[in-house]
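Minutes, project huddle
Topic: does the predicted pose make sense with zinc ion bound?
PN asked that the exact inputs be recorded in the minutes so nobody has to dig through chat later. Recorded below.
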Amino acid sequence: MQRIPAPRPADGEVLLAVGAVGICGSELSGYLGQSSIRVPPLVMGHEAAGTIIDGGGRLADGAPAVAGQRVAFNPLLVCGTCDRCRAGRSSICRQRRLVGAHLAGAFADMVAVPAAQCHLLPDGISDVAGSLTEPLACGVRAVALAGAPRRLLILGAGPIGICCLVAARAAGIGEIAISDIAARRLALAHRYGASATIDVSSADLLHEAARLAPDGFDAVIDAVGAGATRLQALRAVVPGGRVVFLGLHDETTELPVNYVVRQEVELVGSFAYTADDFGRAFALLVAGALRPDADWLEERPLSAGAASFEELLAGRARATKIVLRPA
Ligand SMILES: [Zn+2]
Ligand SMILES: [Zn+2]
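Predicted holo structure (tokens), as shared on screen:
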């Protein structure tokens, strides 16, 4: 923990007293100093909600920002004017910047963000719940990029896998199978409406996938990003189907590309979200589609941040998700 000057909101920005900020898997590599976009000295933290204490401007819905309002914010800042933004692909904006990576983030008492990135939290939706909008938005985008599969397989039932599941249910996908090595996570997936779960600690994924969907899954989302899951995704998808790579566990992976050629498999990467995806995730969250229940999410003070990173890296954390509370 360090004392640093409080951020000062620029024009159109609000200063938030951070109420809750989730630890994202992508930040673990930053903690280890292995992230190309998270270069110290840096305040990380991009999954956050809090209370406006200063600044001004207009919120995402156009209403004026007022001190005392509680908001969740979209941490991906995009230009809105480049060719990619204009084509509806703002997640790959030429000037994208992420709060907590390119700019000071929310593992702090305060963070400054553009008011237009903020969504007003209704009473009854806590800051901790609000902080889940960001990972849920990642799920919304991955599901959108999966097309409209009849049968979807999600590899990994960690926070991002569960967010994909919630988004897939909301998108009306009928058959959703999900795999993980942890029984606790698979139980959670059941509660969030998975049609089938595959415990890969005891069963072979491809064998089970073939049993559940003899004709193959129309789309597979890899929410892990390890070499093994990337290969499984390729093998489990139906010829002509689509694989969405979302997890970032391994930097590089060797894959049988000749199989991709011969089976015309589509390989798609999914990064973050557009403003529309974020808005959709926010609406889902407000509707209660994803809840910060104690059986999967643990709240800790900000001072427990370093220890929490260590636990997550060592695989010792009991909770699927850890959310820090600076207040
Ligand atoms: Zn994240
Ligand atoms: Zn742009």
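Observations noted during the meeting:
- The longest strand covers residues 13-22.
- The longest helix spans residues 133-145.
No decisions taken; revisit at the next huddle.
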